[in-house]
Amino acid sequence: MSAKFVTANLGVNYYHSSANANNSTCEDAIASRSSIMLCRIACPAPTPRNRFRLQPLLRASSSSSSFGADDKSLSTPSFGNKGDENYHSSSAFPLLPLKQGEEAEEGVARQVVSEILQELGASNEDSIDIALHSPKYLAMLLDSVRELDELSLWNEQQQSNNKQQQHTKSEPSRSSSSNLLSLKQKLYCLAKNKGDKGLLPFLESLGLSLPSATRLARSLSSQTLPNLLHKVKYMRKMFFSNSDDEGLIGKNARRMMMHLSISIDEDVQQTLSFFEKIAARRGGLDMLGSHDASFRYFVESFPRFLLLSLELQMKPLVEFLEDVGVPRGCMRNILLLFPPIVFYDLEKDIKLRVKAFEKVGAGKEDSGRMLLKYPWILSVGIQENYEKVLSFFDMQKVPKASVDFAIKSWPLILGCSISKLKLMVEQFGEFGVGNRQLGQIIATSPQILLRKQEFLLVVTFLKGLGLDEESIGRVLCRCPELFVTNIEKNLRKKIDFLTAIGVSKSHLPRVIRKYPELFVCDVSRTMNPRMKYLMKSGLSKRDIAFMIGRFSPLLGYSIEEVLRPKLEFLVNIMGKPVKDVVEYPRYFSYSLERKIKPRYWVLKGRNMEFCSLKDMLGKNDEEFAAEFLL
């Protein structure tokens, strides 16, 4: 009877016949380099001609080193209880009941690959992980064994060995049937003969296809398996550890591509090709945010990183990024958005190019933030355009402080061509925006320079509400961020909210002119809670709508910092009804400590505290003194 067991370490199954448990060994290992040809997947049909051509390849290997039953790493395992014919004495792989068939063969292959990887210096844990994640390599080995079995070349090799022993009058130690190699021994012979030093299964376990792994393995021939394992573990830890902004990487990649309008250099071209390759796969660029997938794509597109020195290149790069304030969890954002950075010389390329931004007053931390937002600033093309951008704004007589702040806060400007920047500046000029005002605009909302389409859509929307070009120009200078907002998701929602509470459409242009900042507030988190608080305090929707029509900033005030303390002082201290603010909503604009309280206590001291809010607060200091103090 046959015993069935599983190698639990690998999730492996293999089937073993106890009839061959103590006898099946390999007299002569097939170690000849020429026999690697037998490992190919596509093998010709077992015709007599093919048999004739393949036989010399096996015979040529007869001089290679041999292994026998006393070789613990290669001896056929036995199973069962001690003293039983099915006893298994190996402690390397704990055994459990297993299945027969292809799963069993895959189990043997995994075990063999794991053992060879450990011989090459891999730890038990690493060897198991690689064996579990290199199915194509295992299949290739198994297919090669099957092809040789079909050609009966394993048997013929053993018969040839026996004849040689008889010719030399040496007694064969085993019968021809017992000389048959076990599956494990065949796999071991073939895997060792490939001479890939364990690189093929290792590279496949990283996500490379077998053909890609084969090509790359040639260039990695000088590398040892333990060295590569250490390098990959370090890269995973430093650049592919958990991050809180997974969803932003793909979004940032799209934005960087969208706003690039200059001629690109080779490094940016390689990055764009990397993005295109990922975008073509299921999940698209969002897969950049997946830890495992992003590392697999990185290795596949930039396998040269495996040739880099850990001590001379990778670790110094990590130390530099930490020095400029880049958190470890965000380092992969830079690497995935600009992979060529790992091939840059730290002193001659990275530090020198970062130093160039001292012209705009960028310190260490500024440089780190700029790299996170736009790592392409290190590319040659962006560096060249940077000088052109500075020169353009200097010619436009835009204040340098505004330009410096805009570049530091939104470095994507540096990927915009001068011709496009010029068009946007001319567009602003049509609304009466001068050079100094342009500085205010780009310092407040620098991304507006890259968003011409959104800008024009907002202009059209505002015109539809009744604003003329002069009014639009004033709104642009006061609240430029309004012109880069989404109309349907933001602006229209605010308009709908205001009209729903009773603000007349005819009053909307005035509301926007007086306080455009209201239209960049969030409806659900800002405007609605403030309206509910005012209603809870005793005001109706109609009252609030009337107040907004007369005083647009009303819903822009904080509940805790402005609305609550001033209403409580009005009602509890001044003794006035809450409805008084309906007639004079500007009451909320005055400082409680510097104006409201001092004037109230003056009036109370003169028994004049029952005057209206407008009379108490609407006058300047001279007018107030003339009326109430003389």
Based on the model shown, name its key terms.
single chain; mainly alpha; 57% helix; 2% strand; disordered N terminus
Strand content: under 5%
As laid out across the biggest beta sheet, the strand order is 2-1-3
Low-confidence stretches: 1-99, 170-179
Return Rg in Å.
39 Å
Characterize the quaternary organization of these chains: single chain
> From the helix content, strand content and strand pairing, which structural class follows?
mainly alpha
Give the overall pLDDT as a whole number: 81
Shape call: elongated
Characterize the main sheet. Answer: 3 strands, antiparallel
How far apart the termini lie comes to: 119 Å
Number of strands: 3
Which range best describes the helical content: under 10%, 10-25%, 25-40%, 40-55%, 55-70% or over 70%? Answer: 55-70%
Output the number of helix runs: 31
Q: Short description, anyone?
A:
The protein has 630 residues and is an all-alpha fold. It is built from 31 helices and 3 strands.
Task: Give a structural overview.
With 630 residues, this protein is mainly alpha-helical. Helix content is 57%, strand content 2%. It contains 31 helices and three strands. The protein has helices at residues 48-59, 102-119, 124-132, 135-150, 153-167, 183-194, 199-205, 210-219, 225-239, 246-258, 266-279, 291-301, 310-323, 331-337, 346-355, 364-373, 380-395, 400-409, 418-429, 435-444, 452-465, 469-478, 487-500, 508-514, 523-536, 541-550, 559-573, 580-583, 592-605, 613-617, 621-628, and strands at residues 3-7, 12-16, 95-96. Mean pLDDT is 81; it is low at 1-99 and 170-179.
